[in-house]
């Protein structure tokens, strides 16, 4: 329900309410109290805020009027206020019995309850026609009368002074009698208002000073922008055609702008513009559609779309100055209240790209740790990292991000240095020798994946912004690709906090500075099923958007700034940075000024039009630089040689005396005043835009650049604590500055050796964090400083630089460059031992290109040079005797004796063990088990004689497997596999721990539950990634999937795990690892029962991973193995065929593949146990084969009843059934079912039930058969083998 009162009456109430509030303030504070003045101003402002809202309603009522507007009808008495009293009986009663002098509370209720205004003009008969000119004049008169009413509204019902002046027709006014002939009142006109009085008022208004009118309005507390609006409405004649009001709609638009941003347009601030400087602030202008697209992607991150495993990527492109960084930062800042975290990595042409990323994360952790309110969040991050990273991985993370060290003090204390590998032997062991480029990068990606998983969650979402991607290198683009497109393969399947879909990835780049490599990565993002790409293109601002920007900066309505904007828009094409730069230049040239008398910004529009913006904004900025004092320009040049920010700590290193430092800071502060620099906090400076930094650097000659870089480097050497043992960020800055100086032709030859040493240290640290491109640049620079091979005092430096340069060249897949460094090394090395690091790199490169034969021959040659003669042509008898003699040598020795015994310190022997182990790695895939055992036994014998070291561990483990193979001595095998792990742990050989753990897991099925090692295999997988052990990563993956399949793990889970590992191996480009994994995956899919219509549809997505390979199906896998002599892989294929045939109840086919499997047998493997079991079940009609299988299981069950009891009982049940001993058979079947259930082998529980059902059916007991078949189907379904459940249902349907 609504009630109406006149606007005049409502206004009297509003004025009365204001007066009473002022009286109350006076009574409380007294006349002279300053506090009263402030309160009076607040009351006045409250009046204005209410009045301006009603003013907008008034104008909107005119716009919505159905009748044509007549200026004479627009008076305050023709407007009605509509009060909304719905549900408010008290207000309704008040309005029905309206008093002349209501109480304050009632006044407030009336004033605040305005719903809308109605324009109710008086009815008048006016049939006169209006010509076009008359109509235009009428519109102007309408606007003037609107201004008059608004004046009354804001000035407490007082009419404009010019209109209400009496006796305006004095002779001095120059009016003739003709001016008075129409002095009659017009119908509907305000009393006393005549045509003559209007003309006189208009004439007087033209003569009056606008400033006096402003002062009149200001005396009523009317803000200046409202003053201008009223004045411009009333004083329409002679007004600037570009800024005058043309329609009532424009008045409404201006009021809306004033109301929507009162801090800019309603509240006057004396400080605004008084400094004579423009402040563009951090507001984002325009970009509504672009922001909507960006926020839509952010919303998808917020919606917990975890099941899709899709990552959200926003790519923001635009020309330089389009405001890409500002656009992203503004939107993320607006989301910070919802728990968003923001990490900003801005690439720079003069910074190492990966260091930009690590620095961004370092800053994030430093800020979080400094905030006490974030302690709970920090604890959660620590907990997540400790759950998902091992101690050695945490150490690697702390090396990568030094700010995280404070998070893990106990871990860092516990992880000791590898004393065995360095101090004792002098051999520098770097696990990168065992890693290819892809493996090393995968390790780096793994660390960042875990880091992001820990940092973000459903409560704290992360926006990770890679800014200016046109300057990122391939390594950083691969990192970004990995974070979005590489899954955290195994752990993602069952770890709640391993979800990085809570991260919004954002990348920006200059659209005119892209390259093919960058565009290729973008194409990959768009084609990836795991990435949703949102493209945002930032062009120039539209006229409306740029006008809003200029309007808000000048705090003037858009109507007034429109003429200025027209010129600025034309000259800058709407580029935000160009607009800002041009506007500042107008201020600098005094074309745009803040008028203290007018209290607003003013400009000479003709001067603006004649001001040229140079062909490029860089020319404009160069002109700006040219006006700076020389010392300020010199300071900017120094700043341009440094990173993105310069803080107080760095300035203290560069300018050691307070005087020089203060002078430098004064120069920077001057640049801040010129909008060239911005100050972050108290003491950090950065360029406002990277274009400014580029320009400051570009204005220098090559020689001047070199001198500045060199001076910075030398100052940091002298004062930056560069001599500390820890190679920190300052050291990297030194190296980067010195190298940049040399590239510009400036250096100091007397210090070249020191510079080479610094580059070597920087390169080694870069290798440690897998930044191999930076590592190569440092090693290359170090070699160049040497100016040729150095002997004598600097021989070791030359040796290490060339070794390391060859290593990183190999890892970066530049084999030609690797060979050139190795050639220099081999030609200049003093002795054979000094060539060994080079040989290690050479052999690894041979293995990486599948030249195992060449690698094997080179290893044998090296071992001979080291005094170790070895043969790979070994028969079974020789291998058996070698294993037996080694066993006798170890008899009587405990693991404690080995751990606490003598250490191998001889450098030559250490190298011998290293190459013997490398030979083992080549022999294993070459299917030479006898030579493998002989080589491992030689490692053990040398260790027993000369002392144990970390390289002894693998020899002990392979020897253990040899004892198991040749003598069936399980306990000896387990003893030395466990002992090897304890040995490397005691020596701190962290890069060896995952490898020996994997070997131990392989042997553990003898006496540990098969299901128990699944989590250990996952952890080992992560550790192998961290140490870069690619070969063993593949073996561990195959073993993990095989054990998951055979231990009864749910097949749907096993399938997802296998698919994840397949994806990882494919990314590592390891075809030899893909082949067995594809075979495993096909076996799982067939048991599950795929929905593919044909075998081709099943094969196609898997074999597509092999690229252009001729292998297109499962038969092709076996043919490939047989034709290439891959005996081990052929055995793998036969087992997968055996597995499928057995569970499909094709026993004849299963028996065939079981025999084929045996024919390939050379070394005992985990699947052997199941081959024996399957063969025993399928071949029990062959009494000898069945008894043989049963006999083996009766022996094996002594090692683990958990793993083997149910299988032994099932073999016994089948044996009794074949003998016709039905009751004994039933008893054993039930015992097998119970055992399988207790030990969680659901698949074998189903198998035993199915076989028991067959026994019942064969003997006519259909009811019991049906019960067992039903239980078997239930077990198969729990296992996820829906194909088996369907087969059983169909075969027993009748």
UniProtKB/TrEMBL annotation:
Residues 284-486 form the Orc1-like AAA ATPase domain. Gene3D superfamilies: Tetratricopeptide repeat domain. Residues 165-197 are annotated as: Disordered. Pfam families: AAA_16. Residues 178-192 have a biased composition (Basic and acidic residues). This is AAA ATPase.
